[in-house]
Specification:
The structure holds two protein chains of two kinds. Chain A is α/β, with parallel strands linked by helices. Helices cover 33% and strands 25% of the residues of chain A. In chain A, strands 5-2-1-9-20 form a five-stranded parallel beta sheet. A four-stranded parallel beta sheet of chain A has the order 13-12-11-17, covered by helices on one side. In chain A, strand 11, helix 8 and strand 12 form a beta-alpha-beta unit. In chain A, helix 3 packs parallel to helix 11 and helix 3 crosses helix 12. By secondary structure, chain B is mainly α. The chains are: A alpha/beta, B mainly alpha.
């Protein structure tokens, strides 16, 4: 059977006069295309876009289609700086066009609605289908709006935003911070593990504190946590103590911090220790893998997708890879850098599989910078390899910034935060 | 594909057609072995052969010996305080040597 799809034919026609040479040319082109294979990538965030880009870098004649619902990508990293008033939302909004212009990735704007892993085809909401030889699923997260009693999507869109997917929600939360009176309380409620961006809620608290300290210094922040510990906890808490003394109270789950219910009408939050009223309430709900991963049957009963730690191949379907936040990645956190790193390993596996070449050994990397103030950066980093229990951190590597660093070192890490962002954007979309 | 004719008009025409076809020679990372794959992690912060970071030291095309001794100094905390020590301790000296050699040439 010919591997030509109608889309391929159109592409070849647009490519110029080569196809006019006559019918004898068609089997030749078909063979060439089949040899390099067809890849569909679902999701154009840090994971999916990096996978598409690196598959083209490793195997330029592979046909790569990137399916993405939204026109532009607004990054969750740095969205806390929009809340803090030190970045504009346009500066964290990125186009994907260079993937097409520089690397030849085909960009399809649409939403994947179903995957047939037997027929190897992705169906889109508009009814069209995309056949694949390899499928990369990188849909990010789905927010569980039912995960907090009394809270729902309507409450999130009006009075109690999550701001855990950047964009309109980020701007809504920022607007509420701007509108609140000096002396009010901001309640931030992070979820239990696992969730997207483990240090994110605490960097958010830092950036809200930065805004309040400079504009509304009588205000307080109350962190009602479902957990008893969090990422970079010692560094964050020392930073809060030195930079925002008396402003931030963190309540651990074991001390009654876990939110039991909310009342959006009265802007109250009920946790184990009692009821609190917030001038601003930010609910960060429990999460699962993105909906398409669940619908395609790629997730476990816990809502996340199990993968082979050496390749991120799905445990549920052949010729399918799941990466980024949606995957169960062992010791790796759900972060943009982790997704970017996993995507390179997946790209190497996909390219090697389609070309019949040797598969390189997987090594993964993560770096998460966070700002306590615009001049005070902290980091956690890790190097990982596949192990019998999943992806594992290389012993004696990785870890967090030193607790006793001086102001110049914190400033250097704040500068590196900016460099990391510019770099990962270029490495993902450029 | 190639633009059918040269000159600015040809370039403009080619740009209009990019919806379906890449108009410039594509980059390629050939022969992806263990070292080549591991080296791609560096791009996130340090840029690539085609992108220079605003705040991170460039490493692509740097002297292999200088890169290697810097990595060893990070690994042994002779150059403390950045994240590089924590990262370098994830690799053997031989792996760091291979990475330095690759980065110096790419």
């Amino acid at each position: 059977m010919s591997s030509f799809s109608p889309k391929f034919s159109r592409r070849q026609i647009l490519a110029g006069a080569t196809i006019a040479a006559g019918s004898f040319a068609i089997p030749h082109i078909a063979r060439a295309q089949a040899a390099a294979g067809r890849v569909v990538v679902i999701g154009g965030g840090f994971g999916g876009a990096t996978a598409a880009r690196y598959i083209k870098l490793f195997s330029p004649d592979t046909d790569v289609v990137l399916v993405e619902r939204d026109a532009n990508y607004i990054t969750c990293p740095f969205s806390n700086y929009v809340l803090g008033g030190i970045r504009d939302i346009t500066s964290i909004t990125h186009r994907r066009d260079p993937l097409r212009q520089r690397h030849g990735v085909r960009l399809v704007r649409g939403e994947a609605s179903a995957v047939d892993t037997t027929a190897r085809s992705v169906r889109l909401k508009d009814g069209s289908s995309l056949p694949y030889d390899r499928l990369v699923v990188a849909p990010g997260i789905e927010l569980n709006f039912g995960g907090v009693a009394g809270w729902n999507e309507q409450a999130a869109n009006t009075v109690m935003p999550h701001a855990w997917k950047a964009g309109a929600q980020t701007l809504l939360l920022r607007k509420q911070l701007e509108a609140m009176p000096d002396g009010g309380t901001v309640i931030v409620a992070p979820p239990a593990n696992p969730f997207r961006c483990p240090p994110g809620p605490y960097e958010r608290v830092s950036m809200i504190a930065w805004y309040l300290k400079t504009k509304k210094p009588k205000s307080k922040i109350l962190v009602l946590d479902a957990k008893d510990a969090f990422s970079k906890q010692g560094l964050f808490m020392a930073g809060w103590e030195s930079q925002y003394p008396g402003m931030i109270t963190w309540v651990a789950g074991k001390d009654g911090g876990k939110v039991e219910s909310v009342d959006p009408k009265n802007m109250t939050v009920t946790a184990g220790f009692g009821k609190e009223k917030g001038a601003v309430v930010n609910i960060i709900p429990p999460q699962t893998a993105g909906k398409i991963a669940l619908d395609a049957g790629l997730a476990e009963s816990n809502g996340w997708c199990a993968v082979d730690p050496a390749s991120f191949a799905s445990r549920k379907a052949t010729n399918v890879y799941v990466l980024g936040d949606a995957s169960i990645a062992g010791a790796m956190p759900k972060s943009g850098t982790a997704a970017n790193s996993q995507a390179k390993v997946v790209a190497a596996h996909v390219a090697a599989g389609l070309r019949g070449t040797a598969v390189p050994a997987a090594v993964f990397h993560n770096t998460c910078y966070s700002l306590v103030t615009p001049d005070y950066g902290i980091s956690v980093t890790g190097t990982y390899r596949p192990g019998p229990q999943g992806v594992a951190e290389v012993p004696s590597s990785g870890g967090v910034s030193p607790g006793n660093a001086n102001a110049a070192q914190r400033k250097a890490e704040a500068d590196f935060t900016l460099g990391w962002y510019a770099g990962i954007i270029a490495d993902t979309f450029g | 594909m190639r633009a059918p004719f040269l000159g600015l008009a040809g370039v403009a025409m080619a740009c209009l057609m990019t919806a379906a076809v890449p108009t410039q020679a594509q980059q390629r990372i050939a022969a992806v072995n263990d070292t080549v794959l591991a080296a791609q992690a560096c791009n996130v912060c340090h840029g690539s052969a085609t992108y220079v970071s605003p705040t991170m030291p460039p490493i692509h095309g740097a002297d292999a010996g200088a890169l290697y001794s810097a990595l060893i100094d990070f690994k042994t905390d002779k150059r403390p305080y950045t994240i590089m020590g924590r990262i370098a301790r994830g690799y053997s000296d031989e792996q760091l040597k291979a990475l330095a050699d690759y980065l110096s040439k790419n």
